[in-house]
């Protein structure tokens, strides 16, 4: 087994099986001659078999989050029928920032294989939502909007694809609209981010801010690795900025 496959196998758990495992096998096989998903170590194969026998609920690791990002990113990038270099650059840059250049290069090599594969978004999302926390799934949606906006505008097809992914991940419309508003410069974006109407009272505004700050606090992502905290902080900061903007408009201290 190649060093690349060993690197991948060491960092993932639930993603070794199911539809995601099949995608990984295809992607690795595209640049590792004769490779298949069965070429992981004996210990990892045993882990998969035990998981399937006992229907054990395995929680996401940093590696699982990484693989989920790669696969869903490829779906969004292809949503408008073309692969934009700026979007590819965004994915690479984001991975370099999170993991460092060496690990990011390995991830992007894998991504080049994934993006060639036809993917069942529904099946992939079903596998992700069984193991990944709600906070982690919200972070995935935030990242996908960042990719879509990398070329300056979120196209209709990209937004529709992200919405479909959000539905499959059981992200409700309130949470989806909140994250979406973080990437649109509209007059009511701040209110959408806090999931309230413009007619909300000042007390309702404060209550909404406390609720959203708690929901999007970076500590919610501790389970999937420190490398993802930066993205969570960015999302959390947008909640704070939305609150400050509305307070300023209303003359609140």
From TrEMBL:
InterPro entries tied to this protein: DjlA_DnaK_co-chaperone, DjlA_N, DnaJ_domain, J_dom_sf, TerB-like
Highest taxon listed in the record's lineage: Bacteria
Gene3D superfamilies recorded: DnaJ domain, TerB-like
Coiled coil spans: none
Classification via Pfam families: DnaJ, TerB
Domain J as annotated: residue spans: 189-251
Keywords (A to Z) from UniProt: Membrane, Transmembrane, Transmembrane helix
SMART domains in UniProt: DnaJ (SM00271)
Keyword Magnesium attached: no
Residue spans crossing the bilayer: 7-28
UniProt keyword annotation of Flavoprotein present: no
Annotated protein name in UniProt: TerB family tellurite resistance protein
